[in-house]
Amino acid sequence: QKVTDLQSCYLNVAVWNTPPYFSYLKRVDGYYEISYFEAELLEVLSDKLNFSLNLQEPPNNEQRGKVLSDGTITGAMKMLHDHTADLSLGSFRYTLERSNLLTAALPYYQTYQVYGILTTTQLYTSLEILLYPYDKLTWICLFLSVQLSFIITFIIDYFYGKSLLIQIAIGSPRIRTPSMNIIRLFMGQPLIQIPEPHFSRFIIIFWHLYGLLLRTAYQSLLFQLLKLNLYHEP
């Protein structure tokens, strides 16, 4: 009968803020407010056994505490061991360390643990690593854009001596290796011969920025692959 009715005696309870199990927050008026399902469990237990709550927080934010290598106990475990707290709750789970030191209650909350195990792994080949940063559609668009630039360059070079408009747009003297210049600009290399007209320089700057964006994205994605050591999906 003494255990079932504690005559509104105060029990020291070691608690801390550990949502979603137990919320222990200070209100504007200075009082602490508890909530979540472990707080409801504590309040129901207080009503059933007729005791009052004296909430205490473990010092130095040690929360549950642990047993150090030299045998020193910290946190709520120390408070229970030294009888400065009568009970404690806040997402406690069964461990060998705690069972050797404290008396636990019956489990009142359980969750399923789901583990994903990678049974087989396959590393990327050298070619797959080089092609990894972009998907198939991006590589196709990149290939078509380079081929289109080669075709336009060939047409301009072929009609250079026959069209005055092309000579004005490209400038003089005639560019000797236009196809090689496309590759050099795309790979970020400087040009040996820079045309004088503004239109030609605008095209060069545009193509250079296009290559810069693609190179930067490619290098960053390739670095991510090499850093994280990704695998094929099993």
From TrEMBL:
Q: Which domain of life is it from?
A: Eukaryota
Q: Where in the cell is it found?
A: Cell membrane
Query: Where is this protein primarily located?
Result: membrane
Q: Which GO terms describe its molecular function?
A: ligand-gated monoatomic ion channel activity
Ranges for domain Ionotropic glutamate receptor L-glutamate and glycine-binding: 11-111
Which Pfam families did the record assign? Lig_chan-Glu_bd
* Keywords assigned by UniProt, alphabetized: Cell membrane, Glycoprotein, Ion channel, Ion transport, Ligand-gated ion channel, Membrane, Receptor, Transmembrane, Transmembrane helix, Transport
Membrane-related topology note: Multi-pass membrane protein
- Where does the sequence pass through the membrane? 137-156
Name the record gives this protein: Ionotropic receptor
What organism is recorded for this protein?
Calliphora stygia
Highest lineage ranks of the organism? Answer: Eukaryota, Metazoa, Ecdysozoa, Arthropoda, Hexapoda
